Amino acid sequence: MAFLSDTLSRVKPSPTIAVTTKAAELKAAGKDVIGLGAGEPDFDTPQNIKEAAKAAIDAGKTKYTAVDGIPELKKAICAKLKRDNDLDYTPAQVTIGTGGKQVLYNALMATLNAGDEVVIPAPYWVSYPDMVLLAGGEPVIAEATAATAYKLTPEALEAAITPRTKWLIFNSPSNPTGAGYTWDELKGLTDVLLRHPHVWVMSDDMYEHLVYDDFKFCTPAQVEPALYERTLTVNGVSKAYAMTGWRIGYAAGPVELIKAMGKIQSQSTSNPCSVSQWAAVEALTGPQDYIATNNALFQRRRDLVVEMLNAAEGVECPVPEGAFYVYPSIAGCIGKTSAGGAHIADDEAFATALLEEKGVAVVFGAAFGTSPCFRVSYATSDAALKEACTRIQDFCAGLR
Ligand SMILES: Cc1ncc(COP(=O)(O)O)c(C=O)c1O
C-alpha cells in the first residue's frame, strides 16, 4: 500500500507471535493443539509483587512518573546490579522502559545512523534484526553453529566487525537456544571487542536468573571492566518474576546514552506504567527464593524434553544451560515425506506439517536465522510436554 512507510517494508511481523496466534486459532476451532511456542513462564506473578501493585494503586501512585522511571526503582536496579553482577551504577546511569523490548529499541533508535551495522549472533531472538532495520541500521548476522553449542566464537565475531559496526548484541542465556556463555567463553568475545574500540556491546541479560546445573551467569561489563564505558546492560523483570504482562525492562550504561534513550521515550510512550514500576521495586528488593523453586521445575522439564526429543528419529537436541527453550536440529528429517504426505523440504515445512498432522506448535529455525532446527518452549506443564514430545516422536517415526 503506497500510503505506508518505506521503513515498514524493511521489517516482518514477529514469527513467534504468528505461531502462537495460529495455534490459538486452531484451538478455538476445536482442534487438539499443544502450543510449545510461548515466550513466557507458565507461573503466576508471585503474591508479594501483586500486593505491592495493589498497595501502589491504593496509595494513588497512578499518575505520570519521571519519563525514564521512579527514583525508587532506579535505586533498586542499582542495588540489584551490585548484588547479582558486581557492577557499580548510579541512578543517573539507569533507564526504565515498557519491557526490555522498548529499552533495546530506544538504544538502537538513539544511536544508529543510516548504514551503521549491528552484529547479531545467530540463532538470534527474532526481534533484533527487525529492530535494527526499523532504527535505520543494517543487521550483520554472525553464525554460531551446533558444533559450538550455538555460541558465537571469537573468530566469527572478529570476521563480522567492520569500520561501520556500532554494536554487538549479546544474549546469554539465549532465546532461542538456551545457550549460556561461561566466563571464559565470554572473555574470548570481550577480548575481540577490546581490539575494536569503536564497537559497543548491548548485553541482553533477560534470562539471567533462569540457569541450571549450577551454571554461573556472567555479563560483559563484569567479565571485562575495560568495556564498562561502552556497554549497555539490559535486563527486566518479565522472565525471572513471571511478569511479562507488567511491561518493565531497564538498562544501565553511560549517562549520555541513557539520557539519549530517555529523550526517545519522552517523545514516544513517556513513563512505563506507574503501578508496574512499584511492582518491580518489590520484585527486585523482596524475597528471591521462588526463582530457585521455579528453576528446579524448569530444569526437570528441560531434562524431560531433551531426553524425549533425542529419542525421536532424525532429531538431535543439545542440553542448554538456561532460559526455557531447547533448539534441536532436524537435519535427519529434511528431504523426507510425512505420513500425511507433506514434503519436508525445510524446517518451516516440518513445523507446518507437525502442527497440521499432530497438533503440536513449535517455531521453525529459519525464524531465528539458523536451519534446519526448531525451538521448543518448555514453559508449560509436564503433562503437555510429555504428550507433545510423544507426538513429535510419532511424527518423526512416520517420515519416509
Ligand atoms: C532475548 C529477549 N530479550 C528481550 C525480551 C523482551 O522482554 P520484555 O517482555 O521485557 O519486553 C525477550 C522476550 O521474549 C527476549 O526473549
Describe the structure.
With 400 residues, the protein is an alpha/beta fold. The protein folds into two domains: 6-44 and 290-392, Alpha-Beta Complex (Aspartate Aminotransferase, domain 1); 64-285, Type I PLP-dependent aspartate aminotransferase-like (Major domain) (Aspartate Aminotransferase, domain 2). It is 41% helix and 12% strand. The chain is built from 14 helices and twelve strands. 50% of the residues are buried. The mean pLDDT is 96. It binds pyridoxal-5'-phosphate. Pyridoxal-5'-phosphate is lined by residues 39, 99-101, 125, 171, 175, 204, 206, 236, 238, 244, 249.
Q: Estimate nothing, just give the exact number of structural domains.
A: 2
SS elements, strand count = 12
**Terminal Cα separation, in Å?**
43 Å
CATH domain class name of the largest domain: Alpha Beta
What is the CATH homologous superfamily assignment of the largest domain?
Type I PLP-dependent aspartate aminotransferase-like (Major domain)
- Biggest sheet strand line-up: 2-8-7-6-5-3-4
Order of helices and strands: HHEHHEHEHEHEHEHEEHHHEHEEEH
Tell me the structural class. alpha/beta
Mean pLDDT: 96
Total of helices: 14
**Helix content class:** 40-55%
Q: Cofactors and ligands present?
A: pyridoxal-5'-phosphate
Q: Could you say which overall geometry the principal axes of the C-alpha atoms support?
A: globular
Percent of residues in β-strands: 5-15%
CATH architectural grouping of the largest domain: 3-Layer(aba) Sandwich
Provide the CATH topology of the largest domain.
Answer: Aspartate Aminotransferase, domain 2
Main beta sheet, described? 7 strands, mixed
